Amino acid sequence: MGKMTDCLVIGGGIIGMMSARTLIMEGVSVTLLDQRECGKESSWAGGGIISPLYPWRYDDLTNELSFASQIIYEDLCLQIFEDTGIDPQYIQSGLLMMDEYDLPLAIEWMNRYHVDYQFHVDGALFSNIAQVRNPRLLQALKVDILNKGVDIIEYVKVNNLLIKNNKVIGVRTKDKNYFAQDVIVCSGAWSSKWLKLVDEVFPMKGQMIILKSTKSMVKNIVLDQGRYIIPREDGRVLVGSTMENVGFDNHTDIGVQKSLHKFAYQRFPSLFNVKIEHHWSGFRPASLSGKVILGRHEQFEHLFINTGHFCNGLNMAPASSDRIKQLIINA
Ligand SMILES: Cc1cc2nc3c(=O)[nH]c(=O)nc-3n(C[C@H](O)[C@H](O)[C@H](O)COP(=O)(O)OP(=O)(O)OC[C@H]3O[C@@H](n4cnc5c(N)ncnc54)[C@H](O)[C@@H]3O)c2cc1C
C-alpha cells in the first residue's frame, strides 16, 4: 500500500504544478504524478502569451480566468524568480493585432471588460498584454514546488481511479496504488485517455518554430490571421502556430515550417535570413464543448478536474488553480 497524502495531482504541466503550488502554500500535503517529466508537454510547447488571442471568441469563464490571472502574473513571476533564481522573463511586450478582426464582437468585448487599445499604423495595439518564457516558468515552478515540499513522482502513468462507496480514495498505476483525501485531474490532452470525462478532452496539435535572431527585430507580439510572432527577451523570435485535429501524432512537417517562416519574414523582412533554431509540436487540451473543465466531479466525491484549457492554459493557470484550491480547502 502506498503512502497517504492530502491531495494527489495527476499531471505536472502548468495546470498541475500551479495547482500543487497553491495547495501546498495552504498547508495541504501534495503528491504530483506525471507519466513523463513535469512541464515538458503542451505547457512547454506553447507561446506564453498571457491573453487569449481574439478573446471575444471565448466564453465568460475563459475571460474571467484570464483577466484574474493577468492581474497576478507579474508578481507571481517575480516571487518565483526570487524563490528559485530562475527568471520566467515576464515582459509586457504588448500585442499588435494586424488583421481585420470581428469588429462588432471585439468592440462589445472591449466595452464589457473596459479594455483599451491604441491605433497603430499596422492595426490595433493592446499594450497591456504580456508574455512569459514558458519553458523557464515551468523549470522555475518545478524547483519552487519541490522546495515547498510537493512530492513529485515522474515517469508514473496513472491508469485508473480507486473508488470506494462512490468516493475517490486514490489512483492506480501499473505497480502501485496511491491514496489521498482528494484527487485533481490535470492531465491535459490525455485526460479522457485514462478517465472517462463527461465532457471529453482531445488533443489539438500546434506546431511552432523559433528563429535564432540575437537583436530585437520585433518589438511587440504580432497577431495576424490566427498566426503570431513573439519576440523573446534575448532577441529570439517564436512563430506559431497550426491547429491540427490529428490525434496524438506529434510529427512536425517541413511545409508548415516554411509557411511559418514565410509568415514572419513577410511582416519583418529582416527575418528572412535568420536561422530556424528549432521546430516542435504540442497537444493543446481541447474539450468537446470548447470550455474549460474546472470543478468538482459530478459523480464521485473527492474528485476534482482542472483541464480543457485549450489555447489558454498558460494564461489561465494561476486563476484556474486558485479556484480548485478554494473548492478543496472549503470542502
Ligand atoms: C503550439 C501551442 C501554442 C500555445 N500558445 C499558448 C499561449 O501563447 N498562451 C497560452 O495561454 N496557452 C498557449 N497554449 C496552450 C497551453 O500550452 C495549454 O493550454 C496548457 O499547456 C495546458 O496545460 P496542462 O497542464 O493542462 O497540459 P500539459 O502541459 O500537456 O500537461 C499535462 C501533463 O499530464 C501528464 N499526464 C497525462 N496523462 C497522464 C497520466 N495518465 N498519468 C500521469 N500523468 C499524465 C502529461 O505527461 C503532462 O505532463 C499553446 C499550446 C500549443 C500547443
TrEMBL record:
A GO MF annotation of the entry reads:
oxidoreductase activity
The UniProt keywords, alphabetically, are: Oxidoreductase
Pfam families from the entry?
DAO
Q: Which PANTHER family match?
A: GLYCINE OXIDASE, SARCOSINE DEHYDROGENASE-RELATED
The organism is Vesicomyosocius okutanii subsp. Calyptogena okutanii (strain HA)
The identity of this protein, by name, is FAD dependent oxidoreductase
Entry's Gene Ontology cellular component terms: cytoplasm
* UniProt domain FAD dependent oxidoreductase: residue ranges: 6-323
